[in-house]
Amino acid sequence: MNPDYGIILNFKVNANANAQKLVRLARNIGARAISVEGANDLAPYKEACKDYTIELVNAHGIDLTSANAIDELINFKRNEQHAVFNVKLDEMGDLLDEQKTALTLLNDWMHWFGHAYNESGKSTLKTADSNSFICENRHAKYQVYVFIKSPLPKTIKVEGFEHEPMRAEWIDERVELPFSFKNKEVTVELSPYPDGIDYKWRVLRIMKHRPEDDIKETQF
Question: Looking at the record's lineage, which domain of life comes first (predicted)?
């Protein structure tokens, strides 16, 4: 299965379910694939997936609840697994209230960090912080993502860099953070959450040094 399918929603449907509505919901929270259980005819789901550029796969996961939505999402990533969530519908084909709350949480978090979540994989870089782990972009390996659990520490150390990185920033703010580099280790000074925002997990992006960064601008 494509590793970029970070989140897969497994809809447990009935005859009253609206395929277009469900697939659109999946697309809106950043899922790139869905699975369907209980449908007598998959044709409407195949058509909806085509409309929204979503893959229809066969997957079964854990039940989605608001209490553990983000922590479970992170656990899947930490264990290098697709995050497959079972989404149940009521007899009218609508989402259960608990599922709506959980999907809202996922949507809010993925709005900021979905790109890093979907397109990252295991990294050889290390951190001694037990409440953090590191991934790197599968398609642009110079982008390193550090997933950090709240409450946020004041600094984070990442070791294993061959060269001093170009930049460190929170993905949700894109404001450069100060850092130091010594003995292949980067120490980043972390700013707190902006007022009114507090996620269970936040993602730091570190931009590795690239050979092309050494190319000086040519003047004609």
Answer: Bacteria
